[in-house]
Amino acid sequence: MNAVMQTYGRIPISFERGEGAYLISTDGHRYLDGAGGIAVVSMGHNHPKLTSALIEQAQRLWHVSNLYEIPEQSQYAEKLVEASFADAVFFCNSGAEAMEGAIKIARKFHSVNGARNRYRSITLEGSFHGRTLATLGAANNPNHLEGFGPPAEGFDVVPPNSLEAVREVICSDTGAIVVEPIQGEGGIRPLKFDYLKGLRDLADEHKLLLIVDEVQTGFGRTGKLFAHEWAEITPDIMACAKGIASGFPCGAVLASKKVAEAMTPGTHGSTFGGNQLAMAAANATLDILLENGFLSKLQQVSKLLWNGLQSIADAHPEIVENIRGQGLMIGLVVRSPFVNSELGNFARNHGLLTVVAGENVLRLLPPLIIEEQEVDFIINSLKQACADLLSKV
């Protein structure tokens, strides 16, 4: 028996090193990492600035805990605040932790402001907020809840893109609305900008907090630093992780001043959150993202990739039903009877790694540092994968 608990359906490949957008397996094969560690390795593999930052920090200090001041944490928080809507940041280790923190902070805010009953959150069908019991309850996906008892209480789940559905469930106990600008695990489903603006208006009208889950969409993934910027809205709380430190475990909850003030010593905590190593990786990642021209170049490369993918959809409408997403968060909607995983398997045979999502979608989440040559590689691999898929019919 494998001593590793079998909670993953793993692909039988292992890797020994990475170079930019590429991974090299233990048997010597080279793959373009179109999965990006599931939207995590934003700066690719073995980026010299990140490697140097981690080595330099590792030679000084790894961890002291949040019992003490951590200057690197303060430095990074100040950068995030300057680059975002937020006034304060809480650091943790993962997306699920960040979402748990966001939900707790929203509840605490209402409690300290005299509304202890306002603990409920409105969430959306098709969402994914993590694998903890609370975040599973927030998404209320039967496939993820099976065998884990009753869902955590306090969440009202409604269909996406319907403001009326949200309005109908707002009650005296409602405290927050939770939304992913693009539903990632649910199938790369972008929410309409007018809908996101409408959620902001509803939150203001009913004195609710708007929580934006940018665990997968944040830190440049869609072509802006944060995806909610496309809709020109401002959240009250935002959860981040994945690409925040380009592969080093790190998460964060960002909040406005009025919300952050509800959190006082002892109200929340994390043993590892924001330690020196995580902050070294996160600081270096954000410095690259904020370099002049980085995001505009990312948008240009994204357009090239989208154009190439559209040419595949035009050539193979029997396989690719639709393309959706934004920037380098892309979903190919595979038309039945073809299956996303099978298309992904053929793409892997041609050197391209992908990842599946709900609604028969094949996801592309490559590193943000890809160039035109990587775009060509992705397109050629998928063209060959489509041809292989058709040859089986």
Q: How do the strands and helices of this protein lay out in sequence?
A:
Layout: E1 15-19, E2 22-25, E3 30-33, H1 36-39, H2 48-58, H3 71-83, E4 88-92, H4 95-112, E5 120-124, H5 133-139, H6 142-145, E6 155-158, H7 163-169, E7 174-179, E8 182-183, E9 189-190, H8 193-205, E10 209-213, E11 237-240, E12 251-255, H9 257-260, H10 276-289, H11 294-315, E13 320-326, E14 329-334, H12 340-349, E15 352-353, E16 355-357, E17 361-364, H13 372-391
Parallel strand pairs: 3-15, 5-6, 5-7, 7-10, 10-11
Antiparallel strand pairs: 1-2, 2-3, 4-12, 8-9, 11-12, 13-14, 14-17, 16-17
Helix pairs in contact: 2-10, 3-10, 11-13, 12-13
3D structure, described in words:
This protein is of the alpha/beta class and 393 residues long. It has two domains: 15-33 and 292-391, Aspartate Aminotransferase, domain 1 (Alpha-Beta Complex); 49-289, 3-Layer(aba) Sandwich (Aspartate Aminotransferase, domain 2). The protein is built from 13 helices and 17 strands. It has a seven-stranded mixed sheet with strand order 4-12-11-10-7-5-6, with helices on both faces. It has a four-stranded mixed sheet with strand order 1-2-3-15. Strands 13-14-17-16 form a four-stranded antiparallel sheet. The two termini are 37 Å apart. The relative contact order is 0.16.
CATH class of the largest domain: Alpha Beta
CATH superfamily of the largest domain: Type I PLP-dependent aspartate aminotransferase-like (Major domain)
**Estimated structural class:** alpha/beta
Q: Strand order, biggest sheet?
A: 4-12-11-10-7-5-6
- Low-confidence regions: none
* Total beta strand runs: 17
**Rg:** 21 Å
- N- to C-terminal separation? 37 Å
